# Entry
Amino acid sequence: MAGAIITKLPNNYNREVGYISHYHELDIRQLALYDGLILDYTDQQGCVNLLRQCRSSFIGTLYLLPIFIYSIDKNIDPIAESLSDGVVSSLQVEGVIGKIDKIRN
# Structure
């Protein structure tokens, strides 16, 4: 099984937005460096586990971090959806930048 993969999504807004598609061996402390995250819901359990870890963290920048779920299928577990800041069906960063700014300010 591959280790965690975090991809920085390119944008013109000077924001560090990370896309996570694999959750194995992920050190959540490194996530504090991002302005926001988009989690792939293909691995539902990995996504929910990471959401729970972030939201229960004692590190303020982690539990307040804007986190979105990426899913083409809108059938999202209600717990996962409640722990996230929303569901997106596209990896276009422009769609979440406004939400990230509102959450962080």
Q: What stands out?
A: The chain has a mean pLDDT of 91. Strands lie at 5-9, 17-22, 36-40, 67-70, 87-88.
